[in-house]
Amino acid sequence: ADAIPIKHAKASRDIASEYKYKETHEKEKGHYIGCRTAKEDPKLSWAARAMLLQNDRLYRKAYHESKAQIHIPVDAMSVQAAKECQTLVSDVDYRQHLHQWTCLPDQNDVIHARKAYDLQSDNVYKSDLEWLRGIGWLTEGSVDVVKAKKAQELLNERLYRTRPEELKFTSITDAPDVVQAKINALQISDV
Fold first, then answer.
1. Higher pLDDT residue, 91 or 55?
2. How far is Cα 167 from Cα 56, in angstroms, rounded to an integer?
3. I need a surface site. Which of 103, 149, 165, 187 has the fewest CB within 10 A?
């Protein structure tokens, strides 16, 4: 295996292999893609960008299809009706202030009309509350009063504890230890 002709054959084989490799490399050199990386190639970068846009469109598609569909729970309608009723009952939007008048100082009729409208607005506003005048509110059934009464009952020691002298207790007369105690008492008293 170490003979000179064998070494010579191996070396010539390696040289021929390297020469053939370089020759084929030089032939194919012009056929390579002109870019070193995929980011530098315009077609590959365009394809990557198109893929990103397509993925983004598919990602947002489900949202755009479902954004117009509204699923209302059963109690939401009653909550909405309660809100509308509250706005009707509340006094926030009830009293409508008239717009601010801008007029010349010598237009007394406009100033007089403005004062009349303000007075009329106050009268209309107060007329609905007139029936409330004189009506009192008894606090007997309110939540705070009931809560205070319950707390007082819980803290009342007279209702919580029963004193020992109030318990009715009668001993059993026929029990053997009671009979023995009576006999012992009689014997002691006889002595």
1. 55
2. 84
3. 165
